[in-house]
Model the fold of this input.
Amino acid sequence: MKNGANYSLVALIRYFLKLGSIGFGGPVALVGYMHRDLVEQRKWISEDAYKEGLALSQLAPGPLAAQLCIYIGFVHYRFLGATLVGLAFILPSFILVVLLGIAYTHFGGLPWMQALFYGISAAVIGIISISAYKLTQKSISPFAWKSIQEKWLLWTFFILTATYTFLTEKEEIFLFIALGILYLFYQTSWKKKSLTIQSLPLLLSAVHVKSTQSELYEKIILFFSKAGAFVFGSGLAIVPFLHGGVVGEHGWLTEKEFLDAVAVAMITPGPVVITVAFIGYLIAGFTGASLAALATFLPCYFFTILPAPYFYKIAKNERIKAFVDGITAAVVGALVGSVLVIAGKSIVDIPTAFIALLSAAVLIYTKKIQEPQLILFAGIVGFVLKSYFF
Done:
């Protein structure tokens, strides 16, 4: 396949360095940029190869944009291309997020920083609410009675995990997996097909790198490996899992710090999942940021390159699709439950409620304003309100 490339690996790396540096708009926008630039304009990647990569990225756990980037690097330059292109895509946003983490750590207690995040945190609630709404429609079904009837079991999973997350303020990975397997059995039984061990998808266990550092480093590696290995959907789909772990289970961050971390990921270019680096920095400095990012993206890397040579055949397996449908419905439900939990603790007064509602309305009724612009504007509004009126 390498001989069929009409571009150099250096050129592809340069492209993804640029995309990782200036690519705003979240996973959907980043995926669109790749199609426009590499398929339509430069014709480096064929339409079929792009579609296969997109399908694999949606089917496997992990951040969508990063997985598609890795797959594109694999198409003509195999493992070396996948590795270098993936690093090029992630590195710019990682560096920027770490710098913001340094600034946040040193100046987070200052009134002007608190004022900025007063508005930004509220805007994030509006943004992730709309993202959760869109993700629900895309992943399960439209909000139409006929569609809900057809996908009744997936909606049951959705309601179950949303309620569980809201009440317990944590997410249970094994519940997601159990619901995925249950839907697999439901689909195979409904279609009267036999179930064999080969029907189950390849589930790689969480990557747990042995750390020679402190017990904290080991916990960071284990937790963020699970986040990368078991979270399906867009970048924001990782939010409920991270929230349950870093705020609830481990108590590494406060509610406010976690929401600020999500905000930082949204105002920076590159994959939204890079918020893990900001969280890691707040937990354990630069080492924590590096370990969190590596542990999150490493499972994504392997989930992409290992099935890539055989994906055309794997993608046709209806049982694998059934498992992913079930686990995705559960994860999206957890995302909605997490949004409710975070909103309940972040919308503290009328101005923050207004900013959140206005942010959601802007995303619904206009396409000219993107998330980073909206968050920056909300930061200015929050700064003015907090500095001069409160």
Q: What stands out?
A: Residues 192-212 have pLDDT under 50 and may be disordered. The chain has one domain: 110-388. The CA atoms of residues 61 and 226 lie 10 Å apart. The longest helix spans residues 64-107.
